[in-house]
Amino acid sequence: MYPLYLFAPENDMALAFGGPHYTPTPAAQTIARDLSLLPLWYALEPNAYVWSSQLVDDTLQQHLDAMGITSKATSRPTAPSICKPWGWSAYITDKFTRAGIAAHLLPDSERIEHIRNLSGRATTRTILQALHNSLPQHTLPPLPNILHNIREVEEYVTSQPASMLKSPWSSSGRGVWAVRGTFDNATARSAQGIIRKQGYIMGEKLCDKIIDFAMEFYSDGQSVHFAGYSLFNTDERGAYLGNLLAHNNYIEQQLLYHIDIELLQNTRAALIDITTQIIAPHYIGYFGIDMLIYQDRDKKLLHPCIELNLRMNMGMVARIIADRFIADNTRGYYYVYYANTTTQLQQRHEQLKQEHPLLIENQKIIKGYLPLTPIQHDTHYCAYIVI
Q1: Given its phi and psi angles, is residue 93 left (phi above 0), alpha (psi -120 to 50 degrees) or beta?
Q2: N or C: fewer beta carbons within 10 Å in the chain?
């Protein structure tokens, strides 16, 4: 009996699909395969297994041994004590069922429906409304609008100098785009397609972003606990690029250059109370709430709920790696990198090895480059850190 982990980044789009018979896109299948061994780095139990068709090669095994990691990979999971996928959906439940995993280890259809509904972006409005009620002393951004038809979308877009339109379920910046006061044919077509498939679309204020970050939490099924901060970068489309690796206090100090400690602490406490009520009864596991600090005229303000990620997430992976594996008083970066060709990826790998020699002492990284996932003849994605 053992905990069984599964990396499944395609789960976000499986939630959008809704049913168990989702077929991931080729790109989603590639990243799921290439990074399938990533849970070896965040599986905290000493006897955990990671469900993966990939083999742990000699290089990766040497790094795991040097860090004291005893988790293993398996391509044929049998009799786990608990299942811990990246996220839950009808698709993931069906995947475990077809592998022979017992039904009592899996959420039933009612719980899956709760998780799906909570994962939709309408929940961000619910959370933000609760924050407005809990924190009347702080200036918070206006609530996002839930738009159910094209007429409502046009009215909202043309009433704002700049706004964001967001599909209820999406991932890596897809289904999210900025609109600057005009409602053109391209916006109408995109919005209509999302409403037809997913039921509504979100419209919200476009903020002048200074910093992306997240608060990470853990739900034990009864209450929610703060798990740490995530400070991350995205590209112009909002797709994830990587995370700062640093201890919590350092990240908090970076945030306090822009906002005061009272706002940060009050927001954290309020979110624990709010999510204990609406999330804990239906979900066990890590989740993150993306936030940002933004400029509004002459003030720097906090947007405390840009998005709820009701699943394991890259920010939490970085948080665990920073807490477990980097030496005190060191900082670095966690990257998820894509290369068009495997040759390009191999070249980057060799260059980083030369530029950043790895030094590990007492199962802590002092400095250097460490690939977290294998780089093989057909690999396009890799996760790595540089300290």
Answers
A1: alpha
A2: N
- Angle at which helices 109-119 and 90-98 pack, to 10 degrees? 140
Cα distance between residue 333 and residue 69, in whole Å = 20
First to last CA, the chain: 36
Rounded to whole angstroms, the Cα distance separating 19 from 2 reads 28
Specify whether the backbone of 362 is left (phi greater than 0), alpha (psi in -120 to 50) or beta. Answer: left
Is the full-model pTM beyond 0.85?
A: yes
For the beta carbon of residue 98, count every other beta carbon within 10 angstroms: 9
Interatomic CA distance for residues 301 and 161, integer angstroms: 19
Tokens coding 292:
């940002």
Residues 6+ apart with CB under 8 A from 65: none
**In whole angstroms, what is the distance from residue 337 CA to residue 157 CA?**
34
Rg of the chain, C-alpha, whole Å: 21
In DSSP notation, 351-374 reads HHHHHS--EEETTEEEESEEESS-
68: alpha, beta or left, given left = phi > 0 and alpha = psi -120 to 50?
Answer: left
Tokens of 296: 């509004």
Q: In this structure, what are the phi and psi dihedrals at residue 278, rounded to the nearest 5 degrees?
A: -100, -20
For the chain, 387 residues long, the average pLDDT of each consecutive 10-residue run is: 93 92 93 97 92 92 95 91 96 96 95 96 96 96 95 93 91 81 90 92 93 97 98 80 94 96 97 98 97 94 96 97 94 94 93 96 96 92 96
